[in-house]
Amino acid sequence: MRVGLVCAHASPPGPHGPVVGTHQHIARVAAELTIRGHDVHVYERRDDPDLPATSDIAGYRVVRVPVGPSTRTPTADLVPYVPEFGQWLTDRWAGDWTPDVVHGHFWVGGLAAATAVRQTTIPVVQTFHSLGVEQLRHLGRAYAGPGERIPLERALSRAVDLAVAQSTDEVDELTRMGLQRAAVAVVPAGVDTARFNPDGEAEPRDHQARILSVGGLTAGHGQDDLIQAMRLVSDAELIIVGGPAAGELANDPDARRLRDLAARCGVADQVRLVGAVPHEQTPAWYRSADVVVCSPRYASAGRVPLEAMACGVPVVGYALGGVADTVVDEVTGRLVPPGDVRSLGVTLRRLLSDDAERFAFGHAAVDRVRCSYTWDRAAGTLERLYERVVSHRR
């Protein structure tokens, strides 16, 4: 099967943020589908004139579309280039290589994919990765998405053959947007279990219990709630991995906000911001922790809890989105009501004091990931969905 994966974000990815997650996800899907014998092309916007027009990576082809500025550009500024992006794909696919199915990623990539095939019988599958309307509901004033995103996502949801959700919460949101339930399938992200596993190096630590959070520093990522919860957790350190690089933390407004909050809460000596680290170094950080916390106000996917669980670390998280789907309460960790800072703190304190429970949760977490969340399993599910939409169109 010929598969075209379309992402309007540029390559290579930056050190942190949602674009990196999307890019990594697409790269792994492309590689796994190639292993299964499919002919895969990935289409990204070309943001650097020095990059080659095409590259062959891990058996699949990356095609860099020469549309828009030759610089890294915010997503909202790419919307005017969607018609041109779509037309470029239409012309490209009129040649020797025409996809049997097109899979759009993120809302701008999906718009370009849907535009490209609107006069053809090629089916379109769409993964949003996040939804503006759901972010707006959970983040409120902290939502920083462009105004046209929500109506364009709603229109896109009606133009695709199948929407791939990454959590059951996202399924509910898509059906509220107007999709029929039969047109939505859940395919959670996979985990590289060769890299994320309990065996290997761990970051150094002292005798104190270690709580780890991996994610952004901006409002909505949950670091504010976690710092406040630390007032209920004594003799433990909180390590926050994410945000800008370590050398830029001093001038970062969100890092200053979190440090000021820690000082007001009286836990400044317990909180340490590490900054962004390369993805290949995150397993060592997971392995160094007694527990990983996932407390965002919005989480369409469960990448962080899955990576932590694959490393044998129990997870405490808010019961929403991908966190609620991946963490089994009282089996691989603990779930608490979203926004309940007191419950978060009390749960952390109790879990840190119970070595046997953490040990049992960690072992169960590894088993759960290896049984249900490998990339091979995710690619196999996508393969069957592609076959379904292609057969339906024919």
UniProtKB/TrEMBL annotation:
Residues 205-365 form the Glycosyl transferase family domain. It comes from the Bacteria. Residues 21-190 form the Glycosyltransferase subfamily 4-like N-terminal domain. SUPFAM superfamilies: UDP-Glycosyltransferase/glycogen phosphorylase. One of its GO terms (molecular function) is glycosyltransferase activity. Keywords: Glycosyltransferase, Transferase. It holds the Pfam family Glycos_transf_1. Its EC number is 2.4.-.-. This is Glycosyltransferase. It comes from Micromonospora sonneratiae. The lineage of its organism: Bacteria, Bacillati, Actinomycetota, Actinomycetes, Micromonosporales.
